[in-house]
User: What shape does this take?
Amino acid sequence: MSLKYFFQPEAVAVVGASRNRRKLGWQILDNIFKGGFKGAVFPINLRARRVAGRPAFSDLAALPLKRRERERLLVVFAIPAPLLLREVEKCAVLGIKNLIIISAGFKEVGGRGRKREEALVQLARKHQLNILGPNCLGLINTFNALNATFAAADKKTGAIAFLSQSGAIGAAVLDWLKTKNFSLGYFISLGNKAVLDENDVLVYLARDRRVELIVAYLEEIKDGQKFMALVSRLSKHKPVAVLQAGQSAAGGQLARSHTGALTSSLAAVKAGLKRAGAIWLENLEELFNLLSLFRKEFWRNRGREDLYLITNAGGSGVLTVDEISRQNLKLGRSWDILGDADAQRYRKALRKLLADKKVNNLLVLLTPQTMSEPLLTARFIAAAAKKYPHKLIMASFLGGKAVASARAYLEKQQVPVFDFSEEAVATFKKLLTYKHSALNLSPYRPPAVRIKKPVRADDYLRALALLKKYCLRTVKSFRYKAQPRLSFKRPLVLKLVGPDFNHKSEQGAVVVGLKTRAQLRSAVKTLSLKNKSLLADGRNYFLIQPQVNKAQELILGFKRDPAFGPLLLIGRGGIYTEIFNDVAWEIADLDYQRALKLIASLKIYPILNGARGQKKYAIAAAAHALVNLARLANEHPEIKELDINPLFLTRDSALAADIRLVLS
Amino acid sequence: MSLKYFFQPEAVAVVGASRNRRKLGWQILDNIFKGGFKGAVFPINLRARRVAGRPAFSDLAALPLKRRERERLLVVFAIPAPLLLREVEKCAVLGIKNLIIISAGFKEVGGRGRKREEALVQLARKHQLNILGPNCLGLINTFNALNATFAAADKKTGAIAFLSQSGAIGAAVLDWLKTKNFSLGYFISLGNKAVLDENDVLVYLARDRRVELIVAYLEEIKDGQKFMALVSRLSKHKPVAVLQAGQSAAGGQLARSHTGALTSSLAAVKAGLKRAGAIWLENLEELFNLLSLFRKEFWRNRGREDLYLITNAGGSGVLTVDEISRQNLKLGRSWDILGDADAQRYRKALRKLLADKKVNNLLVLLTPQTMSEPLLTARFIAAAAKKYPHKLIMASFLGGKAVASARAYLEKQQVPVFDFSEEAVATFKKLLTYKHSALNLSPYRPPAVRIKKPVRADDYLRALALLKKYCLRTVKSFRYKAQPRLSFKRPLVLKLVGPDFNHKSEQGAVVVGLKTRAQLRSAVKTLSLKNKSLLADGRNYFLIQPQVNKAQELILGFKRDPAFGPLLLIGRGGIYTEIFNDVAWEIADLDYQRALKLIASLKIYPILNGARGQKKYAIAAAAHALVNLARLANEHPEIKELDINPLFLTRDSALAADIRLVLS
Assistant: This one.
């Protein structure tokens, strides 16, 4: 269903419009009137003839609208939850398609509320209804002068769309914006996301050219693959930034109890956002800083990326350069115009620097001192920003009272201004990182694959054989029998494998360096005695492999994420994998080039690549193995988790030496 | 010299007191009067009879004071630099001991200014003068109602002393404090630190019981050893927090050009502050957050350390728990009192939680929603904080206009309040870390050692022999001669050593695994040919060592820091030391227990300690080696740098296999 008339309705009705100013039904109606919405506005109230000075209607059915007009109507519900389903059914009958349900009392209260929400979803599916919420703040579209929320908001339009899954955080953002003299294009409170979710909204926002940045606060991304498909296309011309709460284990648990969402792991969210080319926000401070700093011109600008500074305090300059260094950014120049700088000296420095084509990004620092003129300096900065709209000009005025009005002035003039220069530098870095990743982004396509016959994971050699089917080489492995024909050219490794030996090293189920038949027999004997009961199960047995030396041990694997699909892993392997914690994650549509990049992101990479005059390892083979494993992950959805550890990476090949499989 | 009368003078004279309100000389005088200083105040002006309505004197010599009174006089100079030395000489003659030099035009301008400062230092030494500055903002001592700066400041007293090496940042802090309704005990602008530096001031502040926290912004710590000696004693009962600018390479360069200081490395500063038990601040935001959060009661409190939350927004709760998790803190409970919580519901939750003895640390989150009453909630929080002065009660009110007055109220009531809960959590963590380290801190004593005869570093075997003198075991090493008596029980290693072979692996000057005499001879031949010219220098020669297997390669070493003395290093060694970057630093007074702790801080530690059922390495031997190396570093000040890499750590010993020495 198109959301055109949901976001740009020709008329709005408020069900539950109230004469009581303390009620949401009054506040919403009042906001719609105050906002200056151009279309018709219909208060719906069972008893009152007039609400807020306008004629009211007793029922949606009573509205003087034709069917076509009803399709272009947006209805906002602010009535108790138990009354809702009947009203929604009425909408379906009347051909009303676009609904906002402000009312709480659904999934978030559990029990009866959960059932009510399920019924709502059924209705919406059956009748193709666009429903925002329930349990939300509503919608603001400043381009249409529509404020269909119960929160006061600015009338001006803006280039940023803000989505929030939390009403409270949405309200806080609106409140913050007011003090910053800052307007949004859209404000969308997603609420319980029973019907419309972030993906639906993104599809609509993608097409609105007036929207230049989309920022979302989410507590879960429901359909990560759709999200990546959408956003990876969007990112090249319209950045999307996401703050997802519940990234820690404890936070995730709380989020689940709060929203009932099955949250993805932090690794999955980070890999998914990266794949989508989205900007990952770690906390609310980063979110607010991004709102402050974002300028379309900046990220479209293909010029030089060094950051220049003007400062009237040496100390501030040094601290800022420290942060530039910490963020791995390039410093153009830090120009100390000294403590006695007045506004004119700032003006001259601004002129001189900005006239230089090399200077694309400038941060102006001011610390209030005897000769400082903060407000006048702010005026000069704002004037410079107007003159050079394609350069990024930021300011950081340190202090309190002495710089308060200057800061407010800069905010009013849309010049990004920060309390601390560190914030400016870190946010700048974030946008730069986005810019680089968006440039090289290929659109994500959920892999179209033929699902293969499920594997039988209960046999170890069969699992290894599965790897071979996907062109992953394995160490020569065969079952130990009493009188095996063995070559001892290389020492052998004896292992116990099977469902009861998933942690072989810790279980003492691996013996290496067996050089003679006698050593082998003795090892078999010892292990047999120790593991008698487990070996009674025929799925557990002895395996023999030739020992691989001079290899780097890697781990290769995947985990299936509920939202983002299979998540591939490569890292430093062996028995110390967790200790080194040198692993990298990627979405399973990766190709050879991205596999190479992923490997290059490992800390161990310089060693694989022959650091300090040493020989190189077969990085290409590891990359191919990753790509093949991705194919396996996509074609075998019955496998929940798979680990190859170790994968021996030698100078010329990548050999899987052990496998662990978990079926779902 | 005691600084008693410097900080608590009985009278103050201002040299350069002016009738022109735009001049510093007027502003300083005005601040002294406005501040309500109880002692006599003498404006000194060559011509004017009266300044600021008070009788003025033409010269310091004309003051109606006895010698004893002059010793208790503080003189503030705000006259041009070229006139200063004569005035300071006059002070010496008159027996005036305490001077503040506001005037700029010294070291910071280079050339003549530098010479002027040197002369000033000479005078101060000769006559034992206490001089603050030059090129500073001055001094505020609110306990004596003395504001001897040209910056406006609050009259109220406070428990925090703030030191700043930068006038500009000092001014910004004072300005910020005004908006926060926050008062300092002392404000001390150190300026060029020609005479009085942070250490002198710390000695004084250590004794003032009214000061509960000392915060310093420094661009260099001149005498790090003295600093550690002072602060490690102070830390147990009075925390000291330091922000040192110029920590990055680029920032350090800038700092040097700015202050002419020889800055310590970041590793040295961090190790030094840690040794001193000081709180390390990374940037100004952390500094301001600490000022906001600090409560003496908190760190004296020995109770439980979990952090409790009250929130009216699930999302805010989740984000805060994420940060608690990131900071490795323990969450007590996150209590969601729901979006429709009014002030009374907050009050009840506060009562219930705070009555619980387990609850020591509480963060109250508020997001403005329809039923929220931010200001009334703030009142209840402030009341609770008064009722439970020994509990740490913090607040974070998200948003803008709707919470502005509530925030201001909390600030006025001295309740720490933050824009973002992350800041509260991170600052809380900082204080907690301080608390733990301060508890276990032993006082630092610059090692009293007998300096030994300098080593001759030009001979490699002699350098190895030096290690043996300090009980550091080395791999058996001997010079290769044409017909050596060799045992090939273990394979041998052949190395080229000497002043031209400092990067042996990269130079291809190491051959391992030599199992026969023939292999050895062939290796010698090859290397001889390749390094013919270098071998002409008799200090370069062949060395033979038995190969050590099954060992972890560590690096052990030290660097001499200009401020903090020898800085010991231990880390993962071998040819990939830089790639692993797993190193830890310590001050060279370390003992066995601290050596063990240092080793335990390495990422590789779990492996050394026998992770995953493996055998343990000889950690005790590595710790002893560190302690012995510290002794060597202290007794041989002529060695600027020393590296042992690799140090082979086996199951039962630590063996130095290679050494690199740099003499100063």
